[in-house]
Design goal:
The structure is a single chain. The relative contact order is 0.23. This protein is of the alpha+beta class. Strand 2 and strand 3 form a beta hairpin. The protein is globular and about 35 Å long. The protein contains three helices and four strands. A four-stranded antiparallel beta sheet has the order 1-2-3-4.
């Protein structure tokens, strides 16, 4: 499954409460559907969840940049 990162944003209050997310990555698949990947810092690294394994793999670079604040604006 190939997806494209279309947004990186702060979680809504609902997402923060329900998913305990610190960040939300919105990706779009080849059919135009949006897929949300939730992420958070975890000790000296990060964790992400909320999507299929393949999408999470595609999101590694984005969450790594977010973790180190390299060009990812919120």
């Amino acid at each position: 499954m190939a997806t494209k990162l279309i947004a990186v944003r702060r979680p809504t209050q609902h997402e923060r409460s329900k998913h305990h997310a610190e960040v939300v990555f919105v990706r779009q698949d080849e059919h135009g559907r949006e897929v949300k990947v939730y992420g958070a810092r975890c000790y000296e690294s990060w964790e992400q969840w909320g999507a299929q394994f393949e999408v999470l793999c595609e999101n590694v670079t984005a969450i790594e940049r977010w973790r180190h604040r390299e060009g990812v604006e919120l």
